[in-house]
Design goal:
Number of helices of chain A: 3
Largest sheet of chain B: none
Strand content of chain A: 15-25%
Number of helices of chain B: 13
Order of helices and strands of chain B: HHHHHHHHHHHHH
Strand content of chain B: under 5%
Distance between the termini of chain A: 40 Å
Shape of chain A: globular
Structural class of chain B: mainly alpha
Order of helices and strands of chain A: HEHEEHEEEE
Largest sheet of chain A: 5 strands, mixed
Distance between the termini of chain B: 102 Å
Radius of gyration of chain A: 18 Å
Number of strands of chain B: 0
Oligomer: heterodimer
Chain lengths: ~160, ~280
């Protein structure tokens, strides 16, 4: 019974738009990025955001990054996730970075690694957007996970 | 006096059994309730939404010894790329049920994160927990996954040994039709990398005999034949791979190539150009 009430309560919260501040929802679990002027065309809760694939997949992203990434001389290894939204104007924003070491514990990578990968991710243009039946672009979230080995990008995991 | 002792002993055994049965009944009820909450999370809510988390929290509360709610939450965090939270939750699931979840962690590390060392370590630990059983973490045979991990680490000989061990074991226990065709493809590719084309070609041919539309098998057959110097046959095989790509046949066998990505059309075109000499 308690759970039914809780679900109803959450449904009410969701319908009033307060869900954007709640944890665990889509990308909203991370601290909001207030630095950019980025805006979604259809802000929550009016739509359910989908994961947008990249044309050519992880291999294409890796090929793009490999040509431009300058190797950073460090022993640091782990995973760096760059995650954000692609809006209906094809703008990438609300980007968040999440870094873990090889034991999957939170870590901070050398700023030369994070800054380069953030910039290169922002430069990617091959996101495959989908359209609603009325022809409008369906906004969605994008996510790239880089596997870092001693300062180099070993793989683009997805 | 003897009857008295026996009487008390019987009473003690009776009481213990009742308490045990009662305890079991409570566990079964708690577990049933927890599964109902998990089912509700799947049925009524979006995966990862606050309501979904709330249902799983209730499942955890109903049966704190159940690992599944932790696993479900871990999956969501990991698919978001939030690995610190994901692995923290996965660790809690493993603490509660290592037999079921340690293997899953290994599978996830190998396939999704290309963490071959970590995946291998988890597989060895998981295998030690069930010494008389062959495990299928994430649905894949343990030896097969060990082969994948070794191949990922670049240990060609050990990878071949594990894949061979997998084929032998699966064939003996369940029959050849249960052997995952990717094992043969990986073995063909590993022999090719070693320069043992005579061992690689029959494996690619074997796959094609059973699966004539397998894109990777045509590609492998092509590059093996190219190295053997049979250009005509190589062009035919590579052309067929390209044809299948164009007809939307997928090449989705992860980890087939050295770079750890799926085979793509461009790579086939490149090899075809090399074979024909036409750019």
């Amino acid at each position: 019974m308690k759970n039914i009430i809780l679900s109803l309560l959450l449904a009410v919260i969701w319908s009033t738009g307060a869900v954007a501040q709640l944890p665990q929802w889509g990308i909203g679990e991370y601290p909001a990025d207030t630095s950019a002027q980025f805006r979604l065309c259809t802000p929550p809760p009016h739509t359910h955001y989908h994961f947008l694939p990249y044309g050519g997949g992880a291999r294409a992203i890796h090929a793009y990054v490999k040509q431009r990434y300058q190797l950073v001389n460090t022993d640091q290894s782990g995973y760096l996730t760059v995650r954000g939204f692609l809006n209906c104007r094809n703008q990438l924003g609300s980007l968040r970075l999440l870094a873990v070491d090889t034991q999957y514990k939170p870590c901070t990578f050398d700023p030369n690694i994070t800054q380069q990968l953030l910039t290169l991710t922002q430069q990617l243009t091959g996101w495959e957007v989908s359209h609603y039946q009325d022809g409008n672009v369906a906004e969605g979230y994008v996510s790239v996970v880089y596997k870092i080995k001693k300062g180099a990008v070993e793989y683009v995991v997805w | 006096m003897w009857f008295g002792k026996k009487y008390w002993l019987l009473c003690l055994v009776g009481l213990s059994s009742s308490a045990f049965c009662w305890g079991q009944a409570i566990d079964a009820a708690a577990r049933k309730k927890a599964f109902q909450f998990i089912k509700a999370a799947e049925t009524f809510t979006y995966q990862g939404s606050p309501a979904w988390v709330a249902w799983l929290d209730s499942a955890q509360k109903a049966d704190p010894s159940l690992g599944q709610p932790f696993l479900e939450k871990a999956r969501v965090h990991n698919m978001r790329g939030d690995f610190s939270q994901g692995f923290r939750l996965l660790d809690q699931a493993i603490q509660l049920d290592p037999i079921n979840y340690l293997g899953y962690q290994a599978w996830f590390k190998i396939y999704y994160l290309r963490d071959y060392e970590g995946g291998q370590a988890d597989l060895i630990k998981a295998d030690a927990l069930t010494p008389n059983t062959i495990d299928y973490p994430g649905g894949d045979h343990l030896y097969y996954l060990l082969g994948m991990a070794e191949a990922g680490m670049g240990h060609t000989d050990e990878a071949l040994r594990q894949f061979d061990r997998y084929v032998q074991e699966e064939t003996a226990r369940r029959g050849q039709k249960w052997v995952n065709v990717i094992a043969y493809l990986r073995m063909a590719h590993l022999h090719y990398l070693k320069g043992d084309v005579d061992l690689a070609l029959p494996l690619a041919n074997k796959v094609l005999a059973e699966h004539p539309n397998e894109v990777e098998a045509h590609y492998l057959q092509g590059i093996i034949l190219l190295r053997m110097g049979d250009k005509t046959a190589a062009i035919k095989a590579l052309y067929r791979a390209l044809e299948l790509f164009t007809a939307n046949h997928e090449a989705d066998h992860w980890l087939l190539l050295e770079e750890g990505y799926c085979l793509d059309k461009e790579t086939v075109q490149e090899k075809l150009a090399q074979a024909t000499g036409i750019k």
